[in-house]
Amino acid sequence: MMQKITRRELGAALVIATAAGRRAATRYGRIKYTMPDKPKEIAMLVYPGMTALDLVGPQQVFGYTMGARVHLVWKTKLPVVTDTGLSIVPTKTFAECPDPVDIIFVPGGGLATINLMKDADTIAFLKSRGEKARLVTSVCSGALVIGAAGLLRGYQATTHWAVRDVLPLLGAKRVDARVVEDRNRITAGGITSGIDFGLRIAARLRGEDYGRALELQLEYDPQPPFHTGSPEKAGGAVLSVMKQMFQPLNDMAREAAIASTKAL
Amino acid sequence: MMQKITRRELGAALVIATAAGRRAATRYGRIKYTMPDKPKEIAMLVYPGMTALDLVGPQQVFGYTMGARVHLVWKTKLPVVTDTGLSIVPTKTFAECPDPVDIIFVPGGGLATINLMKDADTIAFLKSRGEKARLVTSVCSGALVIGAAGLLRGYQATTHWAVRDVLPLLGAKRVDARVVEDRNRITAGGITSGIDFGLRIAARLRGEDYGRALELQLEYDPQPPFHTGSPEKAGGAVLSVMKQMFQPLNDMAREAAIASTKAL
Fold first, then answer.
1. For the CA atoms of A126, A56, A111, A47, what is the dihedral angle to 10 degrees?
2. pLDDT tens digits, residue range B97-133?
3. With contacts defined as CB-CB under 8 Å, which chain B residues touch A58?
4. Inter-chain contact A229–B218, Cβ cutoff 8 Å?
């Protein structure tokens, strides 16, 4: 029996024990947070070739957020093989995904992501949920996919540094920042920015104290070993090599972006 | 066909095209790195109730590291449900896992991790691979499991802040740091520290320039929104609430640690 209790359930159990019967502003010890009347439905797209960490950074945060119901959504429920060979199992098909959802989320990846910009079923799903969602969100090149669904037109947004210059082709205003919030659009930069992004959203959902507690639980006190995590910080040889590596992807993203605006 | 090309393969293809035929010190553009004569075998334990981000942080880095062959190892190959409901598919059973491996890795989690400290099959597997591995490694409370296998005795180590005081019970010397390297043991702190950890190991395997390039690829330029990612930084109400939440886990970890030293 003990084997089935997870850290999340432990936390939830403790807080439920304390907060039982209260629905709105709640205190646990000296920290304050808000609980929703009903669970927040969070739909996270998963797809073959995606970058696992784009998803799992925010998924871990949402998973630790009480009152959030996280769905991993794809066309089928067969395991999806990510860009480094890690397989993740979807929990809902497009048809099974709640409608409306509170949050729709799209992770990035390599060429698979570019191809997804042209995938009619995915675009239709994102438009249907995105137009009614409380928050429309992405990490990394996932922004290009929500952009291809027309959901970033007129909004400030960011994406992985290697494809940031594609955003204006999708009608978005490019902002060079780790997380960009513009009304109900929240987009994040490359891969690891999903953690910063997730914590900010958790704080929106449950209050800043809750975000602070999760940041401590995740021990998010980063010490990047090389201080080369942005184009500006890397510079020189490292940046030029990586730019060269990403150039073919950038070219294809531009092409797909132009095609998507014609299709809409 | 295009749908099957991932970012990783793109990078690999570009570098292989440049570096073809060379095995040792290699250059791509102006960055230098080393390639091994044969792939490095990296065995990453996965198990029900584990924390997905403990695994996926370093797995994403290793997956982008050329010449690394990453195995996700468990008793069966059925999907493993992590502590927030995300399911990951193991790729090898204990019996199928290469022997020896270059790197053995254990992620953490909640009570499931504590129970794993008492699991004879897992401990036997970790001892068998750990005694011959080039690097014995962990993120988060995974350190308690390698410690229960006797692999941290006499070594400096770290783990998630909430269970750091358990390390001495396993014969390890507790160090309060994000990543601790002592000879061939590399242990990291809570959950998100796996990214810092992964980058450091990639640099050990392929050289510092390679680590710098991966840090840029992952856009690891963190901006934690609340600056509460360590007990020292959080302090006050947030720390006291989280300590209280983790106390039952800490108690059980202490008990399991004491039992494990008697069992060995």
1. -50
2. 999 999 999 999 999 999 999 999 999 999 999 999 9
3. none
4. yes
